[in-house]
Specification:
Elements (H helix, E strand, L loop, with lengths): L5 E9 L8 H9 L3 E11 L5 E5 L24 H10 L4 E10 L3 H9 L12 H13 L5
Antiparallel strand pairs: 1-4, 2-3, 2-4
């Protein structure tokens, strides 16, 4: 199987206040064929720093039930080392949802590149917050209105 480009996203929840309400919005981009969920892991760190790792594909906790429709294509590609590093970086009394996404939208572009004897030279993502900060600086300097 050929995969499209993969990205992972870590979404934190202060105070371990995860409720699962983001699942329907994630499901919308999955249902639209934009992305496919390749792996989904939940990490909790209590105030003492103790970590609990939950693989969502075999959990019956009600706060995760909204993710059930998203679990059919999981491949378990996140390694224990990947998850451990994210858990280490997580502040105490915080939880995180780790999502490994396949960018389905890029599959045909990837195929066209390969069919043209092309190859990817670079790819990076610019976060919207960085663009907003740059925009604020440019406005303050009077360079844009």
């Amino acid at each position: 199987m050929t995969l499209g480009p993969l990205d992972y996203t870590v979404i934190g929840f202060a105070g371990n206040n995860f409720n699962g309400r983001i699942a329907p919005e994630i499901a919308k981009v999955v249902d639209a064929g934009i992305v496919r969920i390749v792996d989904l892991v939940f990490v909790t760190k209590n105030a003492a720093g103790d970590v609990d790792i939950v693989e969502l594909d075999n959990i019956s906790d009600s706060k995760f039930e909204s993710f059930a429709p998203l679990l059919s294509n999981l491949m378990g590609l996140l390694t224990p080392e990947d998850i451990g590093q994210i858990a280490d970086d997580l502040p105490p009394d915080c939880s995180a949802l780790i999502i490994l996404w396949e960018n389905k939208w890029a599959e045909k572009i990837k195929a066209a590149i390969l069919d043209s004897d092309g190859f990817l030279v670079a790819h990076t993502r610019i976060q919207p917050e960085a663009l907003a900060a740059l925009n604020d600086e440019l406005e303050a300097a009077g360079l844009i209105a």
